[in-house]
Amino acid sequence: PSNTVIAIAGSFDEQELINLIEEKFKNWENKEVNHIHKEVDYQRQVVGINKDWEQLHVCIGNKTFGRHDKNYHSLLVLNNLFGGTMSSRIFQEVREKKGLVYSIYSFVSNYKNTGIFNIYAGMSYEQIEDALRTILEEMINIKNGNLTEEEFTRAKQQIKGNYILGLESTSSRMSAIGRRELLYNEILYPEEVIEGINKVKIEDVLEVAKDLFNIDNLSITFTGNLNKHSYIEEKINKVLGEKHEN
């Protein structure tokens, strides 16, 4: 029980519900829980996994920080404008303008003490070199300050709008409460989340990008028919080895 979260949302009598929970779980033996915290030893890697698939699937990632870091909300804004939506930088440049991928997006997964930033792209095998190069170019562009106020403002508005819409159903609100308590040991009200996004400045986003978009720290995993397309890793290493304005 000391390691269990029960999340409830909706119309209910609080005391009646507490009594019901205590009755249903009264025979559950309580045991001491020891949480083990280990430092993450992140090392850059390029790893391929062979699968008999028609297209190539690629993930590009970097270690980032945990939920309670002061730059957490800045990271959310950066992710949104870089690859979080159809209006994002890499969706527009890599998919819409150049047609190099079938699908592309970025996402962040944050936990209490650590997290990851990841970019997924699905493409034809022969597009790997151009697609990867374009993604890295967009990283460098943002690192160098090539970010408009319009992109920045739109990203903040999208995050806030999606967050509010995600709380419209009782089940989604319940899941959000339970997830935050379980992963972060906190309960945040919607007003607090919105305030955190509102406080983010464009300079904060660019500061996070300096570390997150360091090409020398990126790991890449890819999967597809590598028996037939054995050149994929060579192409990836070629692009990574090119001179980038880190």
What this model shows, in words?
- The chain is 46% helix and 15% strand.
- The protein has 246 residues and is of the alpha+beta class.
- It has a single domain, classed as Metalloenzyme, LuxS/M16 peptidase-like (Cytochrome Bc1 Complex, Chain A, domain 1, 2-Layer Sandwich), CATH 3.30.830.
- It has a 5-stranded mixed sheet.
- Strand 3 (103-110) and strand 4 form a beta hairpin.
- Helix 2 (72-84) crosses helix 8 (202-212) and helix 5 (149-166) runs antiparallel to helix 7.
- The longest helix has 18 residues, at 149-166.
- The radius of gyration is 21 Å and the shape is globular.
From the structure above, extract its key features.
single chain; 246 residues; alpha+beta; Cytochrome Bc1 Complex, Chain A, domain 1; 5-stranded mixed beta sheet; 9 helices; 5 strands; 46% helix
